[in-house]
């Protein structure tokens, strides 16, 4: 997958990984529509990138908003080649998480991906080309201490990316699933668990920051685009996640026991 000359949409591009991806894409010769619930943030990131970037506001859990992003990209730049489903939120803590918190996490972290693919894949099948990038989390392969909605919705995002690749990967459609651990973003710095549960919020952050390095968003964007260029399905900015995932799969009971001990250590 060559980036130069391609048309891309990046959600959650008003900051964090999304903004870094948009900058890297434009630097690589792509034309990009940056979408974010924070319209001003998307516009601010797009402005310095010049005429090959457009910032747009909108809630990407809404299928009509996604449709409008695709239409805007097509009218300004041409058919969409790549879609980066990057927008993400935290969620509640544990069993006290409300239905609204569960619904929000699943809407943003999973169902927004489904709705985008629903709109894009038919056209990609006709063209015989297209690329969907799911920005999930290591929590989708392992788990997220301190936040059940985040852990479950990211597992679902990984599962959907797998299904999409299996179902459409032999029809010219590429899929990558990105599963980083700690990345220096507002989400890590206090957004994994909403205000009101300080203990869960501290546990969620410590479980990430003590497990490995906290990478910059630019570093992650570089790794992601290298993985897309190589058409890798599983992109791991933190290579140690693969070892953890293998340990989990090889002895689930031992892994669960180890995670309980890790949680107890962090909570003491």
From TrEMBL:
<dbReference type="InterPro" id="IPR020904">
    <property type="entry name" value="Sc_DH/Rdtase_CS"/>
</dbReference>
<dbReference type="InterPro" id="IPR036291">
    <property type="entry name" value="NAD(P)-bd_dom_sf"/>
</dbReference>
<comment type="similarity">
    <text>Belongs to the short-chain dehydrogenases/reductases (SDR) family.</text>
</comment>
<dbReference type="InterPro" id="IPR057326">
    <property type="entry name" value="KR_dom"/>
</dbReference>
<dbReference type="InterPro" id="IPR002347">
    <property type="entry name" value="SDR_fam"/>
</dbReference>
<dbReference type="Pfam" id="PF00106">
    <property type="entry name" value="adh_short"/>
</dbReference>
<keyword id="KW-0560">Oxidoreductase</keyword>
<protein>
    <submittedName>
        <fullName>SDR family oxidoreductase</fullName>
    </submittedName>
</protein>
<feature type="domain" description="Ketoreductase">
    <location>
        <begin position="6"/>
        <end position="181"/>
    </location>
</feature>
